[in-house]
Specification:
By secondary structure, the chain is an alpha+beta fold. Helices cover about 50% and strands about 10% of the residues. The strands form 5 sheets. It has a 5-stranded mixed sheet, with helices on both faces. Strands 3-5-4 form a 3-stranded antiparallel sheet, covered by helices on one side. A two-stranded antiparallel ribbon has the order 1-2. The protein starts with a helix and ends with a helix.
């Protein structure tokens, strides 16, 4: 094997077809392809792993994706078959669990070469091929692994030998947790279950449905036409392209296009027109996909012995049961009702001031407009505020803030091979060890046609140990959709909501790249990628939500802001006004969120197609969503609309898990209180280093509750969160 490794050590991989005849990455493959999964005896393939900078060529095409996928599969299943073939008396941790960890780690990192184009590539056919390949890798490689009874027998044998006959003090706890996770995955995928084939079939269908759902949103080209006279009050109409046929402005349904109109347009009919289009986005294509998925999830959960899908999903999470999650949401909902009432009264009063005392109702398209007007009464001018947040300065200042707080250093990789000319790459170094990169991150911040249209951090490489026990540094990309500049004389100016979102997402970046795990299944990941890994899903948002708190503090806002003309920071009195506006509309926002989170839990807690709510037992999924959001938020729904059809979360891994954002926010407040109470100030570097070591670096090697307790030195509490709600 070592001879073969030396022979193919060059990362140059030339294909017979496609445009990928160039340096691909640190990963090398042999070029000959074998049959996909069916062939029992496979030619050995070797994937090289080092700690060097990942490479993502911009020229990848559909042929490249096909070849890479086949080589990933061949290499991986060669390793799996070797593990299965080890005689019982020769089995050890090294040639079973450790060998599996290396194999799945390599397959995971190489999968990014196949799956990333589906999120970012400019060519629709490449995106389609990438998404299909991702579905196959998920169902026919990663999920299929945990349906192999022979492999499970091997692991059960070695687990018994390694742990049940050894005292707890003598075995590695990280290895034990990894082994336990591996064994649990076999159970959760139905191995040993008499319905295993049906379970696997359903899981593959669910993955395909979810992929199609997300692709439909990303590929959606819907736009709404407006005459300039219909958009009075919107500060920058240059961002909208002209429709040559009509002479009107084209407004897409992406956030950078939608939000300025919903916040600033003083024509309610125009806001309504856009709000209706947004609420009905992808409704025709995605409604049935969602309903099919919900039905299949419920059926699969019951085949696995669970009452419903929500029970299945929550079993390994911090919350553990749907009942506990629901109780948490109801408690916060009850605490928020008084504030909701005040918010709605305030919005109605603002509307009456503008449209007359005859107004009796706040419509869905009024919320953002009058919320912005309310902030203006607090002294916050959203339009002028943008002038203080030019993208380049704000980006650099955010990075600098994280460097200082977490005791790390970022180094831009100017020669990195990236998938688009706008993408930037950085290496991350822990200040106590600058001899090697702890990880790498990429910034892909602007919207493009066909690109993932929301905000997320997408894993590109997990942390794990390679064949020679070398640490493989993790990597990820912050996929954004921030506002572009529409004036050659001005830089891109960010809305403060975009600044806050960037700061939040960068917290995920740090969680990923600062992870130190021996096994990829304990590294940072989430269900956007096909490979298994990551913390409990209801802990996933805790680290970034804690870090997000800093963006509202004057110590940070003073450095993030810099007027694009005068170079002056946001004045202190403006910073104070902005900080005080943070929880404006918090009652409405929280109740609206809870209505969606409860819907997510409820729709995944029943077989359907009819659901019960508020005494009614005849609600279909669309009616249920509309009734729940209306009841809890106090705002009527848009007739005939089903906004779930363009809601990524329930179809991208947050199914029966959307509540996790609020759950995470509660624990994040407890963590942030430690910084607020620091005697040396909010940017306490020693506390930041402790946060990195106790919360970010362990990732899934330690349970979420234990990480919280390790940092806090006590059991976590909701007190700080409740105090914040009552302020």
């Amino acid at each position: 094997e070592r001879t073969l490794l030396r022979r193919i050590a060059s990362p140059l991989w030339r294909m017979k077809s496609g445009s990928f005849a160039r340096t691909l990455s640190r990963t090398s493959f042999t070029s000959k392809s074998s049959s996909f999964l069916k062939k029992k005896t496979r030619q050995k393939r070797t994937i090289m792993t080092t700690n060097t900078l990942p490479k993502f060529p911009s020229t990848v095409d559909t042929n490249d994706i096909e070849h890479i996928e086949k080589d990933i599969v061949s290499t991986y299943f060669y390793a799996i078959e070797r593990i299965e073939s080890v005689p019982s008396d020769a089995r050890s941790w090294s040639n079973t669990f450790a060998a599996f960890s290396r194999a799945i780690g390599k397959a995971s990192e190489c999968s990014a070469l196949v799956t990333l184009p589906g999120m970012t590539h400019e060519n629709a056919e490449v995106r389609k091929a990438s998404n299909k390949a991702k579905d196959r890798l998920k169902s026919e490689l990663f999920d299929a692994t945990f349906s192999r009874a022979t492999l499970l027998d091997v692991f059960e044998d070695v687990f018994t030998k390694s742990f049940t006959t050894t005292s707890e003090e003598d075995f590695n706890k990280e290895d034990f947790k990894f082994a336990r996770k591996v064994m649990d995955e076999f159970t959760r995928k139905g191995t040993g279950n008499k319905n295993r084939e049906k379970i696997s079939e359903n899981m593959a269908k669910i993955e395909s449905l979810c992929s199609s759902f997300s692709s439909n949103i990303n590929e959606d080209q819907t736009f709404v036409l407006f005459a300039e006279s219909e958009l009075t009050g919107v500060p920058d109409l240059k961002q909208y392209k002209l429709d040559e046929a009509s002479g009107k402005l084209k407004v897409s349904l992406k956030a950078p296009d939608v939000m300025p109109i919903m916040q600033f347009c003083d024509n309610p009919k125009s806001r309504e027109k856009l709000a209706r289009a947004k609420a009905m986005q992808c409704q025709e294509e995605n409604t049935d996909l969602f309903l099919q998925t919900v039905k299949l999830r419920h059926e699969t959960a019951q085949l696995l012995g669970f009452r419903d899908h929500a029970s299945y999903v929550l079993e390994p999470k911090m919350a553990q049961t749907p009942e506990k999650a629901m109780a948490f949401l109801r408690d916060i909902l009850d605490r928020s009702k008084t504030r909701l009432k005040k918010d709605l009264e305030m919005l109605l009063e603002l509307k009456r001031q503008e449209e007359g005392e005859a107004c009796t109702k706040i419509e869905p398209w009024d919320i953002s407009y009058y919320a912005r007007a309310h902030k203006a009464t607090l002294g916050v001018d959203e339009g002028k505020l943008r002038e203080y947040f030019p993208l380049e300065h704000t980006r650099d200042a955010i990075l600098s803030t994280y460097e200082k707080l977490l005791n790390v250093t970022f180094e831009k990789q100017t020669h990195a091979q990236v998938w688009h000319e706008e993408v930037e790459c950085y290496a991350v170094y822990a200040n106590e060890d600058t001899s090697k990169a702890a990880g790498y991150f990429y910034l892909d911040l602007f919207p493009r046609e066909g690109k993932y249209s929301h905000q997320c951090v997408y894993p590109l490489r997990p942390s794990f140990l390679s064949d020679d026990e070398a640490e493989v540094p993790p990597a990820c990309v912050n996929i954004g959709n921030l506002s572009r500049s529409t004036d050659p004389s001005k830089p891109s100016l960010l809305r403060f909501r975009e600044v806050e979102t960037f700061f939040h997402e960068f917290g995920h970046v740090m969680h990923c790249v600062l992870t130190k795990s021996k096994h990829s299944m304990q590294a940072w990941a989430w269900s956007a990628v096909p490979w298994p890994g990551g913390v409990e899903q209801d802990f996933l948002e805790v680290p970034s939500m804690m870090l997000e708190n800093f963006v509202w503090r004057k110590e940070v806002l003073g450095t993030l802001s810099k007027h694009y003309e005068s170079n002056r920071a946001l004045p202190e009195d403006e910073i104070e006004k902005l900080s005080k506006s943070r929880f404006a509309m918090d009652g409405y926002n929280r109740c609206r969120f809870i209505s969606m989170a409860m819907y997510d839990l409820l729709v995944h807690s029943s077989e359907g197609p009819l659901y019960e709510y508020n005494g009614r037992q005849d609600l279909d999924a669309k009616e249920l969503y509309n009734e729940m959001t209306k009841d809890m938020s106090g705002i009527d729904y848009i007739e005939h609309a089903f906004p779930v059809a363009s809601w990524f979360h329930p179809m991208m891994g947050y199914d029966a898990g959307y509540f996790g954002y609020l759950w995470s926010e509660a624990f994040a407040a407890d963590l942030f209180a430690e910084f607020e109470n620091s005697k040396v100030g909010i940017l306490d570097e020693s506390l930041g280093k402790k946060y990195r070591e106790c919360i970010l670096s362990p990732c899934a090697t330690i349970a979420g509750d234990s990480m919280l307790e390790n940092f806090l030195g006590r059991k976590p509490s909701l007190d700080a969160f409740v105090r914040r709600m009552n302020d």
